[in-house]
Amino acid sequence: MTRPSHLEVSRMTMEYATRYRTRSHLPPDAGTPYFVEKGMGDRAHLFGDLITVYAGGEQTGNTFNFFTCEGPKGKIIPAHLHADTYEVFFVTQGAVRLFVEDLEGRQQEKLLTSGDFGFVPRNCPHAYRIERHHSQIVGVAARPGGTFERFFESLGTPTDELGLPAAPYVPAPDRFGTVPQRYDVRFLPDHEWRV
């Protein structure tokens, strides 16, 4: 098997217009093979994190998404759940503490470091806290009816920057109420972690 030349690979990396962005490296619909250079997916800032989407509902026929989350050492991300979505946390660098509660109310926490994997079934409250600067999580989420990756830029703010936000982007409180119906994300503001 011969490897494509640099010129051929360059031709395979294209820019598209999607219903979400005027410029994207992700095609606007399923069925198109594509390649995305490191960091060049659709990016958004939310809290202190940079979320980069590499594949979403449009590209996968609403079957799964694939994204990264990079962030500084910081505070816990608000507790939330996904009624119909299964979510994967795979840490590629740094350290991330994952908090999760099962359907019987048993809580666990686990420090995940490079190469560690965490799985959160649907309907299980969860949260995470980045424990080391420059940590990165690879996330995959799937549910029968669609994907939720556009939640990050809808609640957060789209960006063309490649790095973390200069200051945390914290949405106005009323914006949290608009996401559960569209993205299968329900925040649990009164949830307490006992672990």
UniProtKB/TrEMBL annotation:
Top class in the EC scheme: oxidoreductase
Keywords noted in UniProt: Oxidoreductase
InterPro entries: Cupin_2, QDO-like, RmlC-like_jellyroll, RmlC_Cupin_sf
The protein's Enzyme Commission number: 1.13.11.24
Stretches assigned to the Cupin type-2 domain: 72-130
Pfam hit, one: Cupin_2
SUPFAM superfamilies for this protein: RmlC-like cupins
The keyword Oxidoreductase belongs to this UniProt entry's keyword annotation: yes
One GO MF term attached to the UniProt entry: quercetin 2,3-dioxygenase activity
The UniProt record lists the keyword Oxidoreductase: yes
Domain of life, source organism: Bacteria
Protein name listed in UniProt: Quercetin 2,3-dioxygenase
